[in-house]
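User: Can you predict the 3D structure for this chain?
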Amino acid sequence: MTQKLLSRKSGGLTRRHLLAGAGACAAAALSARYVAAQPAGPVSLDQYQRLYFNAREWAFVVAAVARLIPSGGRGPGAIEARVPVFIDRQMITPWARGEDWYRAAPFRYDAPRYNGYQGRYSPAEAYRLAIPAIDKWAQEKYGAPFAALPADRQDAVLEQVQKDEVPIDELRSGDFFSFLWQNTKEGYFADPQYGGNYDMVSWVYIGFPGARASFSEWVEKDNVRYRLGPVSIAGQRA
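Assistant: Here is the predicted structure, written as structure tokens:
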């Protein structure tokens, strides 16, 4: 992950450009579906029944993903895509428990990032350990826990977390940021059955067809916009 991920030098567009590239599709103008009033959807994030996170952790995750993929741009943000729900559900999976990971010592915490994660804690444990440590650091430095800070302060905190500049006894803060950023992207682009990408909003935004059984008739149509809309694995249409 580039160290410039959270740079604000270009008004925050760096993150959205990266997301558009991750989707492998040039972003088209936002459809009128995002401008019009949205129909009644699932319960609000405030009322969502969490599977793993406690209230403090949930507030952090909601606030953090809202800065990583902000609302108010040309496309939907992480909150509109219900990315926090995806991350909460992920925390009870074998991946988050580290069931298939090699987590035996010794660990080299000074190893380059390309060597992979160095630590004995699973992703779920990393969230549980990192969030209170980051909140404590933010409280001492800025006078409030992360979720209560203004947006510019939250961006500053996330930058320092990414750069391993926030002390967490059990792991590098940058390792936690890697988990958070990975899960945020996954929740934004994954099939809706996993809790995020609500109503396939990110697929509509980038023009991704989803899980259609066949669209071979479009393969040779260069520079022609795909207009059929995405289909989820469950067969729902956007």
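Confidence is low (pLDDT under 50) at residues 1-13, 24-39. The longest helix spans residues 123-142.
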